[in-house]
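The protein record filed here.
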Amino acid sequence: MANRQALRELQARLADRLQIARTQGVAASWLAVEAGGKNYLFPLSQSGEIFPWVHMQPVPYTQPWFAGVANLRGGLFGVVDLASYVSGQAPLLKNELTRTDSRLVALNSALEVNCALLIDKLAGLRNQEAFSDFSEKAPDAPEFFGNQYVDLQGATWQEINLQLLAQQAHFLTIGA
């Protein structure tokens, strides 16, 4: 029970910091997340609300990376398993107990796509000062990949342009 309360407090603090960052300018540039053992950065201006993991209704005859649909605050959202989508591999099966750190990050409503990305863990907010180095996107990287950053601890973070992701024909075509 204490873990749930601590997770709720962390999520509330992140949501508050996200809202402050949006209203006060560029105090933080990215929402940092982990999915499939990799680190990703979502631009704050393209990120929407963060939800705890909820049970999703599977949809038959869809791509393996399409986790299903979920009711998030009364809205119906398609849920994409980010790690599976990026890797092109089938998603790892996890039960509700192993999903305690998982979150659904909705795309900003300005992108006009009712979609949430299933991630394994939130890693907080990051700004440019959190990184010591960066490299531009590799020529063979997906179109929606941005720069790659190295933080002060030496971990690599891949920026994902959610607007470009939401415009990908493959992303929008969930039918198998």
Summary: Helices lie at 2-24, 82-87, 162-167, 169-172. Residues 2-24 form the longest helix (23 residues). The mean pLDDT is 87. The chain is about 20% helix and 35% strand.
